[in-house]
Design a protein that fits this description.
It is built from seven helices and 17 strands. The longest helix is centred in the last third of the chain and has 24 residues. The protein folds into two domains: 179 residues, FAD/NAD(P)-binding domain (3-Layer(bba) Sandwich), CATH 3.50.50; 97 residues, FAD/NAD(P)-binding domain, CATH 3.50.50. With 302 residues, the protein is of the alpha/beta class. It is 27% helix and 26% strand. Helix 5 links the parallel strand 11 and strand 12.
Length: 302
C-alpha cells in the first residue's frame, strides 16, 4: 500500500485567506497543498471596491490571480474538498473527496464561516426541530429514522453516506450531483437514494419535521432534513479535532499568530470572525501561512 503524500502545510479553502496562506507558506519553501473549490468562496461572486490600492475588480479575477501566484511559488492546488481530518498526535491525516489520504505536518483552516441556507419555507421555523446544518453533529439523533439530505457537493454526499450508519433510509436531493467518482461509488454501496435533478421546495411540519415537498409536487415523509450546501464547514471540521470555538460557537478561536488550541492547526479569514472582509482575510492568511511553514520546518529539526 502506497504511503500517503506528506506535506508541510495543508490549507483548506481557496478564498483570499487560503490563497495568501499558500503564497507565504510556499515562499518559505514549505511543501504546500491548497484544497477547495474556488467558487465556494463568497468572494468569487462579489465585486470589490474597498480593498487598499485596488480599484473595483471582480472577486473571480482576484482569486484567479491569487491562484496563479500560489502556483508560481510552488504551491500545489487541488479542486476538491476534505471529508475528514484526524490526528495521531504528531501528524494530521486528511481524507479527500476522491478517497485519497494525505498527511500534513500542519493544517490551515480558511474555509469561511457562512452557512449556506436553502431559503425555503419551514427551514427557519424548524431549525433544531429536525432541520440541521451539521451531519457530524446531529446524525445520532436519527437512528432508524428516514432522513433527507440536500446539496450537490461533497458535504451533502459524504453526509448522506455517514447517515446510513444511523438512519433506516437516506434520501439525497440535488439539482446536479457534482462530486468525485469515489463518493458516487460510496453513495451506491451504502444504499443512499439519490434524487438527481430534484429540489426541495418546502420543509413540512409544525413542531417538528414530518416531510419535504419537492419541486415536482411530490412529497417524502422524513423526520430530519440535513442542509449541506458546499464543502465541510467549521462545525464539522472542528468537531473532528476538538478545535475551540469562540463564545458564539460560530467562529474558530485563534490568537494573533492564528494558532488554535491544537498545536499545528491554524485558522484565517472569515472563519475567525468579523469583520468579514477580504483585507482581514489576507492579513490573517499571511500570518497563518508563515507561522505554519515555520512550525513545520521546526518539526524537522526536533
Amino acid at each position: 500500500m502506497t504511503e500517503p503524500t506528506l506535506y508541510d502545510v495543508v490549507i483548506l479553502g481557496t478564498g483570499p485567506g487560503g490563497l495568501q496562506a499558500a503564497i507565504h507558506a510556499a515562499r518559505k519553501k514549505a511543501k504546500t497543498l491548497l484544497l477547495g473549490r474556488m467558487d465556494n468562496s463568497s468572494l468569487y461572486w462579489a465585486h470589490v471596491e474597498n480593498y487598499c490600492c485596488q480599484l473595483k475588480i471582480s472577486g473571480e479575477d482576484i482569486l484567479n490571480t491569487g491562484r496563479e501566484q500560489a502556483i508560481s511559488f510552488g504551491a500545489e492546488i487541488r479542486d476538491e474538498d476534505v471529508l475528514k481530518i484526524e490526528s495521531d498526535g504528531s501528524l494530521f491525516s486528511l481524507e479527500l473527496e476522491s478517497g485519497e489520504l494525505i498527511t500534513g505536518k500542519t493544517v490551515v483552516i480558511a474555509t469561511g464561516s457562512s452557512r449556506n441556507k436553502l431559503k425555503v419555507p419551514g427551514e427557519k421555523e424548524l431549525l433544531g426541530k429536525g432541520v440541521s446544518y451539521c451531519v457530524d453533529c446531529d446524525a445520532g439523533f436519527y437512528r432508524n429514522e428516514v432522513v433527507a439530505v440536500t446539496g450537490c457537493r461533497s458535504a451533502a454526499a459524504s453526509g448522506a453516506v455517514a447517515l446510513t450508519n444511523f438512519a433506516s433510509e437516506v434520501h439525497l436531493y440535488c439539482e446536479e450531483l457534482d462530486v468525485a467518482e469515489g463518493l458516487i461509488t460510496q453513495l451506491k454501496e451504502t444504499g443512499v437514494k439519490v434524487h438527481n435533478g430534484s429540489k426541495i421546495q418546502k420543509i413540512l411540519g409544525e413542531n417538528e419535521v414530518t416531510g419535504v415537498l419537492l419541486e415536482d409536487g411530490s412529497s417524502q415523509n422524513v423526520s430530519g432534513v440535513f442542509i449541506e450546501l458546499g464543502a465541510k464547514g467549521v462545525l464539522e471540521l472542528t468537531a473532528m479535532l476538538g478545535i475551540q470555538l469562540d463564545e458564539s460557537m460560530k467562529y474558530i478561536d485563534a490568537d494573533k499568530k492564528q494558532r488554535t488550541n491544537i498545536p499545528g492547526i491554524y485558522a484565517a479569514g472569515d472563519i475567525c470572525g468579523p469583520p468579514l472582509q477580504m483585507a482581514k482575510a489576507v492579513g490573517e492568511g499571511c500570518v497563518a501561512g508563515i507561522e505554519a511553514a515555520t512550525y513545520a520546518k521546526k518539526l524537522e529539526m526536533d
